[in-house]
Design brief:
The chain has helices at about 5-10, 30-45, 65-75, 90-100, 110-115, 130-140, 175-185, 205-220, 230-235, 245-255, 260-265, 280-290, 360-370, 410-415, 450-460, 490-495, and strands at about 20-25, 25-30, 55-60, 80, 100-105, 120-125, 155-160, 170-175, 195-200, 220-225, 240-245, 270, 295-300, 305, 320, 325-330, 345-350, 375-385, 390-395, 400, 405, 420-430, 435-445, 470-475. The protein is an alpha/beta fold. The longest helix has 17 residues, at about 30-45. The protein binds adenosine monophosphate.
Length: about 500
């Protein structure tokens, strides 16, 4: 086994006879994983994939999808997962940018993709794990000599889910992925006895790397569910020990009548990330289940950076402490100097988890890194005297109104505390006088008599005048992307003429 190779690290711990992945009545042991990834790796090589080549994959979630990921890494190639929601127009950009040696897509997309692919071979895989690639893998030998790689070689390229601007391909090395998984296994206490309910998408780092890598590296088992469905998650709890989710999972589970003390009894750990978990959700969950959610913070480019402790205070509204092998600092937005605890600034991180830069994009890579190797996350955060970090927003969400900075999170916090409010998003909209005008978009429950005037009246004594919204708009739900992030760019776009 090579310490440098992600594949060896992931499959090194599992007992050959124990279950690695269970999905829709099918069970794959660690020995099966070794054989299946061997077949897929042989298929890839036969199809012309060489070490360092990119394999672009836009398929539905399935065990075969994970075999393909592991086999790509095993063959020394670079896995390039693509969100199933991407349109042909977006795919054209990724194919052109990444120049894959092979494209794997859903059979239904095969025809439309043809012209985009040009000379690049296209194989298929569907949600049941069937398709031309599966058929070809099935007739391959199971034995495969894992292709040697160094820690600096790339295992994956993940395009950032940025809601504005062109996506950039974060280059993730074997070291970055293996070290981050090893750190989390340790920190969160994962062992071969763990069984994870996996209801996250596998085209995103949360489901692909955090969930899958951590469980495999620990030699544990994954209950792979095709998508998030609260009833199915609750039904799996008696056989499980852990759940990794985005905040929406937890709000939707809380709304489900099946969530009871008894249902959660076998579960030792509930983890949340990818988007801010409302402090209220954290408290409601603890009250209902007695098991405080462990919130952590990461991003495509860096993997996980901070986590609340496994043993110790899991603080609502905080993403916890830097991981043991991550250096984290909070710096002044303009000058780049470190700010004292309690002051808001931009979060920067350095560690083995951080990406090697953006694929074929020197300029964006240079912009993202400081000369001393720190990566500029673009997230605004604040650290308290105990070292706990809280995220207060994205740099680009910062509102500048009449020359004054307003951090949306602060205003949202006040609005969210009003009775009848489910959640809110505060954005800056173009305004002739102020440059940007603070604007609140508020999701309210079914029975509420909140009005624009009553919200503004309630905020008046609590926020400085310049932070108070100029307008309050009501909606049923805030728009979110697949990872549960509120799409502020979309809100800004939709309401851009509000003050025109
Ligand atoms: P992605 O690259 O899609 O994983 O998105 C990363 C971004 O998600 C981060 O830069 C943060 O803005 C946000 N994010 C991830 N985890 C959290 C969290 N626990 N709380 C607040 N924001 C988060």
């Amino acid at each position: 086994m090579s310490e440098n190779h992600l594949f060896d690290r992931l499959l090194g711990a599992g007992d050959p006879v124990s279950t690695a992945i269970e999905t829709e009545g099918r069970r794959l042991s660690y020995a099966d994983l070794e054989r299946e990834t061997g077949r897929y790796a042989n298929a890839l090589v036969t199809l012309g994939v060489r070490p360092g080549d990119r394999v672009a994959v836009q398929v539905e979630k399935s065990a075969a999808n994970l075999m393909l990921y592991l086999a790509t890494v095993r063959a020394g190639a670079i896995f390039l997962p693509l969100n199933t929601a991407y349109t042909l127009n977006e795919l054209a950009y990724f194919i052109n940018d990444a120049e894959p040696a092979l494209i794997v897509c859903d059979p239904a997309a095969r025809k439309a993709l043809g012209p985009l692919a040009g000379d690049v071979p296209v194989e298929t895989l569907d949600r049941a794990g069937q398709g031309s690639l599966a058929a070809f893998a099935e007739i391959q030998p199971t034995r495969f000599e894992t292709v040697e790689r160094s820690a600096d070689d790339l295992a994956a390229i993940c395009y950032t889910s940025g809601t504005t601007g062109r996506s950039k391909g974060a280059m993730l090395t074997h070291r970055a992925l293996a070290s981050n998984a090893a750190t989390l296994v340790d920190l969160w206490g994962f062992t071969a006895a763990d069984v994870l309910i996996h209801a996250l998408p596998t085209y995103h780092v949360h489901g692909l790397f955090v969930a899958t890598n951590v469980l495999l590296m620990a030699g544990g088992s994954i209950i792979l569910q095709p998508k998030f469905d609260p009833a199915s998650v609750i039904a799996a709890m008696p056989r499980a020990t852990a759940l990794m989710g985005i905040p929406t999972f937890y709000t939707r589970l809380l709304a489900h009548e099946g969530l009871s003390d008894e249902a959660v009894a076998p579960m030792r750990l509930f983890i949340s990330g990818s988007a801010p978990l409302l402090a209220q959700t954290h408290r409601d969950w603890t009250e209902r289940t007695g098991k405080p959610i462990l919130e952590r913070y990461g991003m495509t480019e860096t993997g996980m950076n901070t986590s609340n402790p496994y043993e110790g205070d899991r603080v609502a509204g905080s993403v916890g402490l830097p991981l043991p092998d991550v250096d984290l600092r909070i710096v002044d937005e303009q000058g780049g100097a470190e700010v004292p605890d309690g002051q808001i600034g931009v979060i920067e991180v350095r560690g083995p988890n951080v990406c090697a830069g953006y694929w074929r994009n020197r300029e964006k890579t240079d912009e993202a890194f400081r000369p001393d190797g720190f990566f500029i996350t673009g997230d605004l955060g604040v650290r308290d005297e105990r070292g706990y970090v809280s995220i207060v927003g994205r740099g680009k969400d910062l509102i500048i109104t009449g020359g004054l900075n307003v951090y949306p999170k602060e205003v949202e916090g006040e609005i969210d505390a009003l009775p009848g409010v489910v959640e809110s998003a505060v954005v800056g909209l173009p305004h002739a006088d102020f440059g940007e005008a603070v604007t609140a978009v508020v999701a309210v429950g079914a029975r509420t008599d909140l009005t624009e005037a009553s919200v503004l009246e309630a905020l008046a004594p609590r926020l400085a005048r310049f932070k108070q919204p100029k307008r309050v708009l009501f909606v049923e739900d805030l728009p979110r992307n697949a990872m549960g992030k509120v799409q502020k760019a979309l809100l800004r776009e939709t309401h851009r003429a509000l003050y025109a």
